[in-house]
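Hi C.,

You asked whether I'd gotten around to modeling the 363-residue construct. I have! Everything is below, sequence then structure, no commentary in between.
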Amino acid sequence: MRMKPSRNLLLGLCSMLALGFLYYSSGRISLQGWGHKSLYDKQGFLLKLDGSLPLELIYKYGNLSEGACKPGFAAAKMTAIYPKFTKLAPMFLDSNYKRFSKIGDHSPPFGVKSQEKIIDILLSATKSYGLGEELDSMSCKTCVVVGNGGILANKSLGHRIDQFDVVVRLNEAPVKGFEKDVGSKTTMRITYPEGAIQKTERYETQSLFVLSAFKALDLKWLRHMVFNQRLRSTDGFWKSVARHVPREPSDMRILNPYFIQEASFKLIGLPYNSGQMGRGNIPTLGAVAITMALHNCDEVAVAGFGYNMSTPHAPLHYYERIRMSAIKESWTHNISKEKEFLVKLVKAGVIQDWTNGICGAGC
């Protein structure tokens, strides 16, 4: 006599079938313990980066004329390879900066904790918190971050760089005398006290002076610059600093420290170190500027990025004779991990690298 399956057995089989259907139809049940391979790396970036556009982006940007600015393009491509990306952080601190809890929980360089009083004083003096009326009103902005690398020399990219709506320069890298290769336009110069131009005649006639504060002392230094006060002591700085910045307070800004925090802990994956500056957990200013651009620009390009240690006699910077071999092991930066991050952006087409120095022939 054939035995009929029990009711409990049938219910169990149905449950297993239902779970199997959910797994294969939605793919949302993680079975890593059963050999499932993740599509993302430990930072949350898509492992397969081939530069191709997702179907929804092809539909969105496919009909634009060649050369037209693509609204939201950089953020859309970034989100496609890094789903945790959210476009929420303005370039500079403004009078409502305390609404961002992520920077309120950390001291410089990753936030503003314990520095609110001096920041409020600085913001009340500068009174301006954007790029300027014309740029702020644009519905689509193209941006280029110009690095200081020797790879820029003899590339004749100056005219192309000047075509961007926003040209970002870093530290004391000069423009005068190098216009053919680096352009003549400067929208903003991001720096810190030790990296700022010290000879006032070398400043552009018009540009925003943007402080990236890596320590509390940097904000005190900026207060002297904003109020044109004499800097009596340079104790606490690791080298000489600028003593005067030829800019009106309305042309000075404080870079949102969220970009240092995001670049370090989320995008590059540097050590958290209890949220304090420590060995190998500070991104370079170039990586910070690129992170800022991804949040605030519709299209992003870079030029003058990439160290090639296999060519020790190549020029380190485009404006001086120091060689690549002069690079020493940095206490604060992790160049190799940072390069991994930048290579992802180039491979996926999130940013365009005009000097091809980030990954060379490897992209």
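If it helps when you're writing up: The longest helix spans residues 7-26.

Thanks,
B.
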